[in-house]
Amino acid sequence: QFGQMEVFVLNNVSIFDGADWGKSCMAEFALTVGDILKVKGSAILSVRPDKTVALAAGIMKNRRIGILMVAEESGEVVGLLSERDIVRAVAIHGDGVAQVPVREIMTKRMVVCRPSDEATSVMRTMQNGRFRHMPVMDEGAFTGIISIGDILEHLLAHEQLEYEQTILSNF
Predict the structure, then answer these.
(1) Within a 10 A sphere around the Cβ of 93, how many other Cβ atoms?
(2) Where would you tag: which of 31, 73, 83, 86 has the fewest CB atoms within 10 A of its CB?
(3) Rounded-to-integer distance, Cα 97 and Cα 100, Å
(4) Which tens digit of pLDDT belongs to each residue from 48-89?
(5) What distances in angstroms separate CA 78 from CA 4, 7, 25, 45, one per listed residue?
């Protein structure tokens, strides 16, 4: 359920476009968003649009997350609230931002990806769009949220494993 929010589904495209970085790590390894969610988990936290920014910021702080889905009581997703949205709101509203309803500062236009999308492609989309989190959608339902940090963590872990395997094979 998407209300008046714009949703753009990411097409699975290569992110490296011939660049050398990442070729060794990706040559035989195609990490997907679904692979990351299997390890990370697929919990999605949300806040209602009529709740205050202070409440939402408290949830984000306590749960150590950078984004919340914004959903009506019915479950209809109407947007996202990120740390960046809050910072922009502070610049506009000043000290009064704490009592502003989430609906006034949330992001209504979101880009989503699918579990089958290659993680590096999603990472490039986030980099190009200058955002750090992307909801994951499968068959019309949200199934998780992935961050650029999640992707980097998994890519670096894979590179470390490859490095250790190379060292061990040289003995």
Answers:
(1) 15
(2) 73
(3) 5
(4) 999 999 999 999 999 999 999 999 999 899 999 999 999 999
(5) 6, 10, 37, 14
Residue 143 has pLDDT above 60, yes or no: yes
Give exposure, 48-78, as e/b (b: 16+ Cβ within 10 Å).
Answer: ebebebeebbebbeeeebbbbbbbeeeeebb
- Return mean pLDDT, the chain: 82
99-102 long-range contacts (CB < 8 A, ≥24 apart) are 99/52, 99/53, 99/54, 100/52, 100/53, 101/49, 101/50, 101/51, 101/52, 101/53, 102/47, 102/48, 102/49, 102/50, 102/51, 102/52, 102/53, 102/56, 102/70
What pLDDT is stored for residue 18 in this prediction? 33
Q: Are strands 109-112 and 77-82 parallel, antiparallel or unpaired?
A: unpaired
